[in-house]
Design goal:
With 390 residues, the protein is of the alpha+beta class. It is globular, with a radius of gyration of 21 Å. The relative contact order is 0.12.
Length: 390
């Protein structure tokens, strides 16, 4: 319930600068994001003005190098910023994660000249990015994508359709994976495509059960011509670039899931402390107290898991297995916790007057995006037992 407000999370941060940053983010979220979240989600409003504010505040560039306008923050800190933003409104938290994902290929694989030309505007120039990997017939099997880029001298011609693109139709730039060679993973290349490129169009946004303020749309590439200077990495390197981006992106989804779960727990705590039945607050009943205790324990476990993976990444150590574990556990936790929050609010939990039902609808998509949780289990199992035999 809004009059109680969310409870501050007791965070272990590496520096005082990071602590000040999280305080700033929390204050910004409470002032600029949370108050209008329900109304804007109901209206399907994409909060472009919020992303402009985040860009001006340096919050769209946190994990990237300061040389090109980044915030120079470790993932351990960046992910906790995402958690706070997602707790206020998932459309914003997930949007920052997607934007960060869209910048990954250029920041990690672009030439120095490419980074100098494009990264400052992408990181701090008010732009919003999107990531184009999935296609109508190529979801979990991303290596089977068919969007093709054909070389014509110093340019490339892109033809095909991308699907499930977050920020589709509103993004200023797209990181696009397209086939430049033969079949399979080795024939894919990454490109940086401007949002206003001739021949690029977006279908009507998908009609979704949640996150209505975040447009998800198909993108059509009809002879879109891109100079070779916008090719990212080597020809055929695109799939490896995509996989490295997804490992980091899965941590973003995990942090967002913990944020949504924390918001649901805060709502349930506030409601049960105020709601009176049988002459006392319902939070006094042991059955409900045990539910709240389980919810809080699952959230803390998820937070610890994604931070462990982030610290491995920050140390330059392998973290693919831990990223998959974090994404799997945190998003399943968000689904359980938000469902329990609806139950704790009783009939009111099923109404639009309280945000619990919105949290529950939003949590569901987090089990699907950036690799379904069934795919995460496959990734984890491969690390444990090796690849499947055929």
């Amino acid at each position: 319930m809004t009059e109680y407000g969310p409870r501050p999370v007791d965070r272990r941060l590496p520096t005082e600068e990071a602590r000040d940053l999280l305080t700033l983010v929390r204050e910004l979220a409470e002032r600029e994001i949370r108050p209008m979240a329900a109304e804007e989600e109901d209206a399907g409003h994409f909060p472009r003005e919020t992303f402009t504010l985040l860009s001006e505040s340096g919050l769209l560039s946190l994990p990237y190098d300061e040389e090109f306008g980044g915030g120079g923050q470790p993932y351990e800190v960046y992910l906790q910023v995402l958690e706070e933003l997602a707790a206020a409104r998932l459309t914003v938290g997930l949007g920052v994660s997607v934007h960060t994902l869209a910048c990954h290929a250029l920041a990690g694989y672009g030439t120095k000249e490419q980074r100098a030309e494009h990264l400052p505007d992408m990181l701090g120039g008010g732009l919003v990015g999107a990531y184009c990997l999935s296609e109508p017939s190529s979801g979990s099997d991303a290596a089977s994508l068919t969007t093709r880029a054909t070389r014509e001298g110093d340019t490339w011609r892109l033809e095909g359709t991308k699907a499930w693109t977050t920020h589709g139709g509103v993004a200023d730039f797209y990181t696009v994976l397209a086939r430049t060679g033969g079949g399979g993973a080795h024939g894919i290349t990454a490109f940086l495509v401007p949002g206003d490129a001739e021949g690029l169009s977006a279908a009507a946004p998908e009609r979704k059960m949640g996150m209505k303020g975040s447009p998800t749309a198909q993108l059509h590439f009809d002879a879109v011509r891109i100079p070779d200077s916008r090719r990212l990495g080597d020809e055929g390197q695109g799939f490896a670039i995509a996989l490295s981006a997804l490992d980091s992106g899965r941590l973003g989804i995990a942090a967002c899931a913990v944020g949504v779960a924390q918001a649901a727990l805060d709502e349930a705590l506030a409601y049960t402390a105020e709601r009176q039945q049988f002459g006392r607050p319902i939070v006094d009943f042991q059955g409900l107290r045990f539910m709240l205790a389980d919810m809080a324990t699952q959230i803390e476990a998820g937070r610890a898991l994604y931070l462990t993976a982030a610290r491995l990444r920050d140390a330059g150590l392998p973290f693919s297995k831990e990223a998959a574990m974090a994404k799997l556990f945190c998003t399943d936790t968000a689904m359980r916790v938000t469902t329990d929050a609806v139950q704790l609010l009783g009939g009111y939990g099923y109404t639009l007057d309280f945000p619990a039902e919105r949290y529950m609808r939003e949590a569901k998509v987090l089990q699907i995006v950036e690799g379904t949780n069934q795919i995460q289990r496959m990734v984890i199992a491969r690390h444990l037992a090796g690849p499947e035999t055929r």
